[in-house]
Amino acid sequence: MLPFCNTETMALHLTEISLMVAPGAHAAVLMDQAGWHTTGKLFVPDNISIIALPAKCPELNPVENIWQFMRDNWLSNRVFTSHDNIVDHCCEAWNKLVDQPWRIMTIGRRKWARGS
């Protein structure tokens, strides 16, 4: 869990993704138009290509379904007692999701985007 969404933390995130890419392989990462995603100052590892989604089109970004699932199932309808409590709950929710890769695959799908 990082305290900010900015160019520096995005670079750290891309570095972590890069470490998971198999040797000789190349990853494509979808990104929306957040400023820290589109700045020329962002370091992008050589084994990653960024695919920029059009601005203001959350329906094209499958991760939006992931965030909604986490809110609906683990993060909504509760009173947080402190900043640390929010961070703890978010980390717990994320770890629950990571332990369910099949759920991530199904949540991220869009019925209208499937081929025949």
TrEMBL record:
Xref: InterPro entries: RNaseH_sf, Tc1-like_DDE_dom
Domain Tc1-like transposase DDE: 5-85
Molecular-function annotations in GO: nucleic acid binding
UniProt-listed Pfam families: DDE_3
Name this protein carries in UniProt: Tc1-like transposase DDE domain-containing protein
Highest taxon of the lineage: Bacteria
